[in-house]
C-alpha cells in the first residue's frame, strides 16, 4: 500500500456538458472574465479580495486586507468597521431595492407571507429595539431555536444588528442537543416558537425549549422569546418568557446599527456532526460578508429578476450563507418553506417553484435522491420553466443523480452547480459558474481567490488522477475566525499538514484540473491494497436503477484486513434478494473494475443520517465493529 496516503480512483465519468450559448451571452461573468479573475487572484490574492470588499459599504475601511501575524488566527480587513446587516438590509432602503421582495415565505399548511426590503428592515428594527429592551448587548449570545419562519430571519438580523452573536439550533433537535449548545455559548436569551407544522402535524417546540432549561440546566438563559406560529397554548414562565408580538408592539421602526470591528463575531454554528462531535464554528462580520457576497453572486450569477431558493434549513450553514445572508447582501429575493418536502404530496417543492417563479433552485443530494424515488411524474405536473440554474451542496452528488436533476428539473438546459464548502469555510470554495464546462459529479475548480490543492500526508501535491487530501493553501475571507472557546481544536485544522487548512475530505484532480470529491478522509476504504473514497464506490452502486440510497464502509476482514460492505436502500418495485446482491456486485465491478470487490451487501429501509440529511457512515461502522458511536446530537435518531 502507498504510504503517502494516496487514493486510487476507479470511477471514470466522461460526459462533458457545455453551457447553452444564450446562457453565456447573458451571464454576468463570461468565460474570458472568469479567466482574467483567476489570473488576477493568483497574482494578487489580497488585491482580489480587496476589490470584492470595495463592493460593500463600510463605516471605516481596513488598515490591512489581511493581518496574519497571529496565524492561523487570520484577521481579514483588520481595522475596518462595518455591520453585515447594514449591507444586507439598511443600504437597500436607499436604493431601488427598497420596495423589492426580500423574502417569500410559505408555511406548510399553505399560508404565505412576503416582505419587501423596507418591510423586513422595519421588522428587524422593531425586534432589535425589543432585544435591547431585554438588556441584550453587543457580544451577548442569543440562541435561536426556530423552524423556518420569517421571524427566524428577523431574529438573526436583529441580533446581528445590535452586535450580539446568534447561534441557530435546528428545530428538530432534542432538548439535550439544545441544552448542550446553549451551555457551550452561555446564551442569555433563547428565541423559539410555540410550535411549527411538519408533515401535517403541529410540533410543540416550546415544550422542548422548556425541557432544555429545566432545573438548573442552562441557567445562563435569562429570558425566552416565543413567536406565535400555531397559536397553541403554551406555558409561559412569569418574568422569563415573553411573546414576540407583545414585545415588538410598542417598539419603534428605526434602530441604530451597531458599529462592529471587522473580526467581531457575527454568529456561531455547530457543524452537522457527520464525523464526530459538532464543533462551534465562529464567523465574523467583515470577512464572512465579503466572502459570501462575492461567491454567491458569482456562482449563481445573481440578476435583479432572480428568485432564489435554497431548501436548506436556517439551522445549517447553507441556510445562513445561501438562504439568508448571501441573497440579502446580493439584494435578491429569497424563498423559505416551513414544512416537509412531501406534504401533502411529493410535488410540493415543484409547486412552490412554479407558483413563485423560482429561477435558482439550490438543494442537497439527499433531497434529490428522495425526489427521484417518487419519479419524474411529479415535476411534470408543474411549469418549471422559470428555473435557470440548479445547485447542489452537502455531499458528493453521484453522476446519475446529477443527470436526473439536470434532465427532469432542468429541462437539460439549466446547469447543475455543485458547490463544495463547509461550515468552516463560510462561503462557496470549489464550484463552477453557469458558463463553466460541467462534468457530472465534479465540483470543477476552486473559485477565483481560493487556492485549493490535493496533497499527500506530507503536503506534497498528488499527481493528476491520484486521490489525496483536500487542503486550502491560502486564507480566504469567510474562513471561520475560530472555534468557540477551543483554540487548540481550531489549530488542529492548520497543523495536520503544517501551514495549510486541512478540510477532512479526499479528492482527486483530473487532467483538466477538475476536482472530484471522493468522500471524507475518515471514510476511505481499503480494498485489496487499494485505498478508495466511499463516494466513488457509492456512485458505482447508484448507477444501478434499483438503488435509491447507499452507504459503503470498510469492515474488518480476517484475510484482507479490510473489505467493503454496502448498505442499500432499494427503490420501490425492486426486491431485496440474492439475485439483486449479485447484480449490484456486478454493477460495481463494471463501473470500477475488478479491484472493486464488494464483500457483502445489506438491504435497509433507511440509512442513519444527520438532521441535515447526510449519511452517517460512522454509525454503520460502529454497528459492524461493536465500538462506541460517539456524539449523536446532530443525528436523526439521537434518542
Ligand atoms: P462534521 O464536521 O461535524 O463531521 P459536516 O462535515 O457534515 O459535520 P458541514 O460543515 O455541514 O458539516 O459539511 C461540510 C462537509 O460536507 C464537507 O467537508 C464535505 O464532506 C461535504 N460536502 C459539502 N459540499 C460538498 C460537495 N459539493 N461535494 C462533496 N462533499 C461535500
Ligand atoms: Mg466537517
Provide an overview of this structure.
The protein has 639 residues and is α/β, with parallel strands linked by helices. The chain has a domain at 526-625: ANL, C-terminal domain (GMP Synthetase, Chain A, domain 3), CATH 3.30.300. The chain has 19 helices and 30 strands. The strands form 8 sheets. An 8-stranded mixed sheet has the order 12-11-8-6-7-14-15-23, with helices on both faces. A 7-stranded mixed sheet has the order 5-4-17-16-18-19-20, sandwiched between helices. Strand 24 (501-509) and strand 25 form a beta hairpin. Helix 7 (175-185) packs across helix 8 (205-212) and helix 13 (365-374) crosses helix 15 (399-408). It is globular, with a radius of gyration of 24 Å. The chain starts with 20 loop residues before the first helix and ends in a 14-residue tail after the last helix. Residues 271-276, 278, 317, 393-396, 418-423, 443, 503-505, 517, 520, 614 line the site of adenosine-5'-triphosphate. Magnesium ion (MG) binds next to loops. This is Acetate--CoA ligase. Residues 36-88 form the Acetyl-coenzyme A synthetase N-terminal domain.
* First-last Cα distance: 40 Å
Number of discrete helical segments: 19
Shape: globular
What small molecules are bound in this structure?
A: adenosine-5'-triphosphate, magnesium ion
Mean pLDDT: 95
Q: Can you tell me the CATH superfamily of the domain at 526-625?
A: ANL, C-terminal domain
Strand order of the largest sheet: 12-11-8-6-7-14-15-23
Low-confidence stretches: none
What would CATH call the class of the domain at 526-625?
A: Alpha Beta
CATH architecture of the domain at 526-625: 2-Layer Sandwich
Q: What's the Cα radius of gyration? A: 24 Å
> Biggest sheet: strands, sense, closure?
8 strands, mixed
Q: What is the percentage of strand-forming residues?
A: 15-25%
Amino acid at each position: 500500500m502507498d504510504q503517502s496516503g494516496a487514493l486510487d480512483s476507479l470511477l471514470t465519468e466522461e460526459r462533458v456538458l457545455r453551457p447553452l450559448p444564450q446562457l453565456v451571452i447573458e451571464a454576468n461573468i463570461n468565460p474570458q472574465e472568469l479567466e482574467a479573475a483567476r489570473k488576477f487572484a493568483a497574482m494578487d490574492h489580497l488585491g482580489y479580495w480587496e476589490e470584492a470588499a470595495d463592493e460593500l459599504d463600510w463605516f471605516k475601511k481596513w488598515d490591512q486586507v489581511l493581518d496574519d501575524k497571529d496565524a492561523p488566527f487570520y484577521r481579514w480587513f483588520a481595522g475596518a468597521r462595518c455591520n453585515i446587516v447594514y449591507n444586507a438590509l439598511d443600504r437597500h432602503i436607499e436604493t431601488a431595492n427598497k420596495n423589492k421582495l426580500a423574502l417569500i415565505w410559505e408555511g406548510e399548511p399553505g399560508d404565505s407571507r412576503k416582505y419587501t426590503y423596507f418591510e423586513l428592515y422595519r421588522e428587524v428594527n422593531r425586534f432589535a429595539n425589543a432585544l435591547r429592551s431585554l438588556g441584550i448587548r453587543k457580544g451577548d449570545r442569543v440562541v435561536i431555536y426556530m423552524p423556518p419562519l420569517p421571524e427566524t430571519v428577523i431574529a438573526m438580523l436583529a441580533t446581528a444588528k445590535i452586535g450580539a452573536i446568534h447561534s441557530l439550533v435546528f428545530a428538530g433537535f432534542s432538548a439535550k442537543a439544545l441544552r448542550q449548545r446553549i451551555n457551550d455559548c452561555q446564551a442569555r436569551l433563547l428565541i423559539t416558537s410555540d410550535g411549527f407544522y411538519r408533515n401535517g402535524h403541529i410540533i410543540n417546540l416550546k415544550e422542548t425549549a422548556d425541557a432544555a432549561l429545566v432545573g438548573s440546566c442552562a441557567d445562563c438563559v435569562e429570558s425566552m422569546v416565543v413567536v406565535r406560529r400555531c397559536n397553541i397554548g403554551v406555558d409561559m414562565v412569569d418574568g422569563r418568557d415573553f411573546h414576540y408580538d407583545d414585545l415588538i408592539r410598542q417598539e419603534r421602526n428605526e434602530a441604530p446599527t451597531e458599529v462592529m470591528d471587522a473580526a467581531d463575531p457575527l454568529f456561531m454554528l455547530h457543524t452537522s456532526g457527520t464525523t464526530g462531535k459538532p464543533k462551534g464554528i465562529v464567523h465574523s462580520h467583515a470577512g464572512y460578508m465579503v466572502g459570501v457576497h462575492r461567491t454567491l453572486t458569482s456562482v449563481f450569477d445573481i440578476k435583479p429578476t432572480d428568485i432564489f431558493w435554497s431548501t436548506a434549513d436556517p439551522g445549517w450553514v447553507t441556510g445562513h450563507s445561501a438562504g439568508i445572508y448571501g441573497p440579502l447582501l446580493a439584494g435578491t429575493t429569497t424563498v423559505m418553506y416551513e414544512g416537509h418536502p412531501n406534504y401533502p404530496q411529493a410535488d410540493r417543492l415543484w409547486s412552490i417553484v412554479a407558483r413563485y417563479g423560482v429561477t435558482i433552485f439550490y438543494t442537497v443530494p439527499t433531497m434529490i435522491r428522495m425526489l427521484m424515488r417518487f419519479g419524474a411524474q411529479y415535476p411534470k405536473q408543474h411549469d418549471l420553466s422559470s428555473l435557470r440554474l440548479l445547485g447542489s451542496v452537502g455531499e458528493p452528488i453521484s453522476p446519475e443523480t446529477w443527470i436526473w436533476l439536470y434532465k427532469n428539473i432542468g429541462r437539460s438546459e439549466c446547469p447543475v452547480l455543485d458547490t463544495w464548502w463547509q461550515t468552516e469555510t463560510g462561503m462557496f470554495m470549489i464550484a463552477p459558474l453557469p458558463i463553466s464546462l460541467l462534468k457530472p459529479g465534479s465540483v470543477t475548480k476552486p473559485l477565483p481567490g481560493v487556492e485549493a490543492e490535493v496533497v499527500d500526508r506530507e503536503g506534497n501535491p498528488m499527481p493528476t488522477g491520484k486521490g489525496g487530501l483536500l487542503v486550502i493553501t491560502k486564507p480566504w475571507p469567510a474562513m471561520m475566525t475560530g472555534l468557540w472557546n477551543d483554540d487548540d481544536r481550531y489549530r488542529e485544522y492548520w497543523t495536520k499538514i503544517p501551514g495549510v487548512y486541512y478540510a477532512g475530505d479526499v479528492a482527486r484532480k483530473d487532467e483538466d484540473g477538475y476536482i472530484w470529491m471522493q468522500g471524507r478522509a475518515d471514510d476511505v476504504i481499503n480494498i485489496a491494497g487499494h485505498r478508495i473514497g466511499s463516494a466513488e464506490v457509492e456512485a458505482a452502486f447508484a448507477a444501478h436503477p434499483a438503488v435509491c440510497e447507499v452507504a459503503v464502509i470498510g469492515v474488518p476482514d480476517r484475510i484482507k484486513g479490510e473489505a467493503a460492505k454496502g448498505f442499500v436502500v432499494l427503490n420501490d418495485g425492486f426486491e431485496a434478494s440474492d439475485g439483486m446482491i449479485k447484480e449490484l456486485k456486478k454493477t460495481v465491478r463494471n463501473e470500477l473494475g475488478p479491484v472493486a470487490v464488494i464483500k457483502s451487501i445489506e438491504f435497509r429501509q433507511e440509512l442513519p443520517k444527520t438532521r441535515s440529511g447526510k449519511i452517517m457512515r460512522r454509525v454503520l461502522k460502529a454497528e459492524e465493529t461493536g465500538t462506541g458511536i460517539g456524539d449523536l446530537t446532530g443525528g436523526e435518531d439521537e434518542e
